[in-house]
Amino acid sequence: MSAYNSCGRKNVLDSFTQNKNHVLIFAHRGGSSVHVENTIEAFQDGIDQGSHILEMDVHLTKDGKVIVHHDSSLTRLTGVKNYIQDMDYSQLPLLSHRHVKGGKEKTYKIPTLEEVFQKFPNTVMNIDLKNGPPTLNAAVVKLIEQYGMERNIIWGHEDKKKSDELLKYNPK
After folding, report:
1. Which long-range contacts (CB under 8 A, 24 or more apart) does 85-92 make?
2. Confidence of residue 58 (pLDDT cuts 50, 70, 90)
3. Taking residues 116-130, what's their average pLDDT?
4. Using CA atoms, how far apart are residues 172 and 144, in angstroms rounded to an integer?
5. What percent of the chain shows pLDDT beyond 90?
6. Measured CA distances, 45 to 41, 42, 64 (Å)
7. Which tens digit of pLDDT belongs to each residue from 7-53?
8. Contact 118, 146 (CB under 8 A)
9. What is the CA radius of gyration of the chain?
10. pLDDT of 88
11. Beta carbons of 107 and 37 less than 8 angstroms apart
């Protein structure tokens, strides 16, 4: 993945890279071995386990909310055969993630990117913008600016051309 911070600067990780022997630990989709991936609980677990950076994937709902979820479809994690882009956000909390741990079943909420920013305001995050409409890029930039996260965000897409497009949204 080509990654840039939201300001187009390459120094978002300066505080981590002062010591060249320092290893950065990414919580890929959060602590997803214990909790359902890309949930607030998974991200908290990733931090609790010593991760420096939260990695997440984002999509846009039909009504324009940026949500944190890996797949474009809800099928794998919820059993609901529908696409995120075809549903309003208000419908999503009713679609619980279920994860069996120690014989217990727990229901998880699909979080918005805004909720993740509110919960982890001082955490470096790597955001993978999934294939979606151009309005996804603009919506993510708006949230980054609204929460003052410019120095904490690495974002990108596996396609370099798409990553280059992201710089146009906030070239400061």
Report:
1. 85/59, 85/60, 85/61, 85/132, 85/133, 86/62, 87/61, 87/62, 88/61, 88/62, 88/63, 89/61, 89/63, 89/65, 90/63, 92/61, 92/67
2. very high
3. 93
4. 13
5. 41
6. 6, 5, 28
7. 444 444 565 556 666 677 888 888 877 778 899 999 999 999 989 89
8. no
9. 16
10. 94
11. no
Other Cβ atoms less than 10 A from the Cβ of 40: the count is: 19
DSSP the chain: -EEEETTS-S-TTHHHHSSTTPPP-EEETTTTTTS-TTSHHHHHHHHHTT-SEEEEEEEE-TTS-EEE-SSSBSHHHH----BGGGS-GGGGGGS-EEEEETTEEEEE---BHHHHHHH-TTSEEEEEE-S--HHHHHHHHHHHHHTT-GGGEEEEESSHHHHHHHHTT---
Residue that wins the pLDDT comparison between 86 and 161: 86
Distance of CA 93 to the CA centre of its chain: 17
Indicate the pTM of the whole model.
Answer: 0.83
Token pair in block for residue 127 = 């955001």
The length of the chain is 172
Mean pLDDT lowest among 37-46, 97-106, 128-137: 97-106
